[in-house]
């Protein structure tokens, strides 16, 4: 590296940027041939990719609301991508079950089966619902980004604590429930 008064030359900076960009565009596809997944003693997901071990990794879906089986990103605790799984179906059943378990934990979102009431006050909506996880009351900060359609019929609600709830099909709501929910959308 040529240093002139402690400052890199413009050409060297551009060369470093190009190297960083090239590294960022390299996609590593994870397959049964180049990686091994395992569960740790603490029920964390670990992976060994060729000779490199990663003791704690997380599974991220590229399409969490429409397709949790394809294009899964495996990332370190620092959110650095290790590689991509093109399809869960390319792995044996025990590894599929392991990865699906970690996906369920990451994307846990009880399904709302009944909207009992929604009260709006001071920029918040207070929801009283029945969910697949039981009765649930939660608070949502008013604004279109916290109650939004993620498909034509599926509604995602994010409360003030970051918890997520789903209404799988808004067309299945009663007229009364739909009117309450519509006011928050």
Written overview of the protein:
By secondary structure, the protein is α+β, with helices and mostly antiparallel strands. It contains 3 helices and 13 strands. It has 2 domains: 100 residues, no CATH class; 71 residues, no CATH class.
Any descriptors?
five-stranded antiparallel β-sheet; 185 residues; 13 strands; 2 domains; globular; alpha+beta; 3 helices
Please outline the helices and strands.
Layout: E1 3-4, E2 7-8, H1 10-25, E3 35-39, E4 45-49, E5 52-63, E6 67-76, E7 81-87, H2 93-106, E8 112-121, E9 124-131, E10 134-141, E11 147-149, E12 155-158, E13 164-167, H3 175-182
Antiparallel strand pairs: 1-2, 3-4, 4-5, 5-6, 6-7, 8-9, 9-10, 11-12, 12-13
Number of domains: 2
Largest β-sheet summary: 5 strands, antiparallel
The helix fraction, in percent, is 10-25%
Oligomer: single chain
Strand elements, count:
13
Give the integer mean of the pLDDT values. Answer: 88
Question: Based on helices, strands and strand pairing, what is the structural class?
Answer: alpha+beta
Poorly predicted runs = none
Q: Which strands sit side by side, in order, in the main sheet?
A: 3-4-5-6-7
Characterize the overall form: globular
The SSE string, one letter per element, is EEHEEEEEHEEEEEEH
Distance between the termini: 56 Å
Report the radius of gyration as a whole number of Å: 22 Å
Number of helices: 3
Roughly what fraction of the amino acids lie in strands? 35-45%
